[in-house]
Amino acid sequence: MPNASLHVIEVRGNSRQRGIQHGRQLRTAIDRAVSFYEEFFRQHLDMTPREMQQRAARYIDPTAALSPHLADEFEGIAEGSQHPLETIYALTARYEITFERIKLGECSNVFVGSDWSADGGTLLGMNWEWRPEVMDFRAVITSRCDDGPDHIVVTECGSPGKYGLNEAGIAAIETGLGCSRPHGMGRQLFANVIRHTLAQASLGDAVAVVRRHPPEATVSFMLADATGNGVNVECTPDGLHEQTLGGGDLAWHTNHCRLTTEPCDFADSFARGRRWEQLLADVAPASVDAQRVGAWLADRAGGADAICKLPNPASANSATYLQTLCSIVLAPRARATWVSDGPSCNFPYRSFALADQEAPV
What's this model's pTM, rounded to 2 decimal places? Predict the structure, then answer.
């Protein structure tokens, strides 16, 4: 099983310049990502590399409509890595392409309101889950931007970003949703929607991005700011469903809808949800710090249905061969994040920050 360390880079300048730096610095890892997805799509979706490019090309125009800066960054990554633009889009579109044919139950999220946190700031936690092979091309990218807020993202090499926070104290995470149909109401890649929320200066503006540009995928977003506020948005086939989160809230999300009655056949999602209820039941006010959120994400109660997933070799030939690639704790008030270099039940966290305010986990 691949067990490469996180790729950690910093990029600077405008969007295209940052994309070129990303593509050049991570070119070898991007090559591995492209090779993996070409083989994965061939084996599990009977899709050739050319068909993969054609499917991914559908998102080029919607991305430009969402954010010209983000479209420039994709073009820079393609130039820097020397891959066709459509291939680079396919790396970000892998979830949407796969989910059309194969249901994936992956990732867990948690929101800690400011009344519960030790420092009076909001905390978000996420377990990012996908194929063990992706351990070879995970990255933490710090972006110092000339054309938008500085930000830190956790992502796959070759993708502009999946989960993270920005200098304005906006943080965003996501988990997939099993619904009655594979598509929601929008046209955007979910990762691009998250990246554009991180280009915003307020939580209201970030939520407005989701409302104006909903994703194609059925997903649940959790957004938070540095003042203790948050929003959970479930993007479903029948529309967007929102829940306002505040200082007094502790909230979790796995892979079934909680704000609407969409059906879900992921049994382990409900099992993880029950475990989240247990973990959050004994929380005292002003007691939760990043270390405790990190420990929740590392929880192994439930074995195969645990919050922190280890790969099951018996399912290695299945498209749904999953593990926790890393656990992520986001502290918008501190503009800091902690990322485990593998399943957090076995790997320690590393700290990253936009300012010198981070604390060890």
Answer: 0.96
